[in-house]
Amino acid sequence: MASYLEQNQERFLSELMDWLRIPSVSADPKFHGDVLRAAEYLKARFEEVGLENVELCPTAGNPIVYGEKIIDPSLPTVLVYGHYDVQPADPYELWTSGPFEPVIKDGKIYARGACDDKGQVYMHVKALEVMNQDGGVPCNVKVMIEGEEEIGSNNLAIFVRENKEKLKADVILISDTGMLANDQPSIEVGLRGLSYHEVEVTGPNRDLHSGLYGGAVANPINVLCKMIASLHDENNHITIPEFYNNVAVLTDEERAELNRVPHSDDEFKQSIGLPDTYGEKGYTTVERIGIRPTLDVNGIWGGYTGEGAKTVIASKAFAKISMRLVPHQTSEEITEIFQKHFTSIAPSGVTVVVRPHHGGEPVVTPTDSVAYKAAADAMEITFGKRPIPTRGGGSIPIVAMFKTELGLDTVLLGFGLDSDAIHSPNEHYGVFNFLKGIETIPHFYRNYAAAIK
């Protein structure tokens, strides 16, 4: 296996680079044609590695790329999920190379989607090719790669509900997460949920001269800033009533176990250029990221932002606000109480509209399953070290949906690093990580198939 991977690694990288050149940005309609091109590219690669019944499954949005290899219905089936759409690359001027002009520098592939999630999806495609050269896939495999993950996967749940027989499997395998370090593998066993909103504050019926009207009318930008500031107290505790009602509280023993994860606050601060950490009082950095809910402003705008000065009181101000959720919060519950609270704290001089965008549920996956052990054993083989189970701060809403709709647990076999700058300028993915994923995934299949027999 290693020899075939070594002999073909430059080709594997070249193919990935070709895919990364396609700007499959799902959030911006101007890239719709490119999103479809990215799906077609992946479909062709599915066919090349021997997947059967390969198709672009239509949805109300972007198509889902599907293929399968059923070698024996009596054997277990692994359903692989990933996404081929990517985040917008803005601001372009902060990239050191073109976001859709992939380059390899210092052992890293720089491009939008390099890690999230094209690079990690392509590991699975090439792992199938590697297995074909070494006795074949030892169990059944189905691969489903969607094109709307970065905009909430709105059509995926519909597709899953309508195709339960097609997607029937024993476990779901996803590589859209990370690990602690290249010399310390880990497997995420928990993800936070999400409740995402856009808020609009409206004051006067037009922009006003700040000299003629300033001091006599509510300034929507000032009001919005005050409203946002009131959402946290002096201990960075979220002030929305009932927000913490259903938050799962870990025991002292569980918190101690979580904090055994190798972590250095000094390295954490240095990696992102900050003088100190920041967050909810009474919790460590690891806990703040993994087991505590958060509220963050993801964007804020209004008024004049061009060159020079324009002394106006803007008619409107806007913000995008997201909340990361933990067990046992639900996105429906948090969406409702956020809307109620945010509109209630608005002063009488403005009107407020809260528009929910998308959400997802928090999830914790088992560490005592056959599939988790197969993944842990696979990583131990290729890294020479046992992976540590960790709680991730990000959200993959479809993990909870898969459990609800298909009754399946997920193994989050990710190979990215926190330093890969996903969703940011200069996103990158290590060549080491890409190749190590291709090397590790076949071991998962072999371990899993052997354990199920």
From TrEMBL:
It holds the Pfam family Peptidase_M20. Signal peptide: none annotated. The keyword Hydrolase applies. It comes from Hymenobacter taeanensis. GO terms for biological process: proteolysis. Keywords: Hydrolase, Metal-binding, Protease. Residues 198-348 form the Peptidase M20 dimerisation domain. GO terms for molecular function: metal ion binding; peptidase activity. It comes from the Bacteria. This is Dipeptidase. NCBIfam families: PRK07907.1 (NF005914), PRK08201.1 (NF006053), PRK09104.1 (NF006579).
